[in-house]
Structure prediction request, 106 residues.
Amino acid sequence: GRLIFGGSGAVTLGNVQLYAGSIEPGTDDTGYSGSKYRDFNRINVIRTGDHEQSHTYQYQNLGLAFLPLYLLNGFQSGANSFEAAADRGGRGGSPYPDYILPWHAR
Prediction:
């Protein structure tokens, strides 16, 4: 998730979701895939809590490998496949990057 230190945002550590500032689980966001200010039809809007919940699923399936894999994918950027997958998971799709699927989702 996005956490701007000293500001507002959300971060998931294992199965714990932390929210800061004005961000809450029900806060609308577009994740890393777009700007809610340009998305007048709200097609890409997801709730921050749904995005963060996707990170808990990623961690549950990858365990301790999650953090190094996440960091190797570009930390908190639109190029990070874990962030893109969390956005997709927040919209009801698979929360896993295309190249990392749990055995039961194949």
Remarks:
- The first strand starts at residue 9 and ends at 13.
- The helical segments are 48-62, 66-72, 81-90.
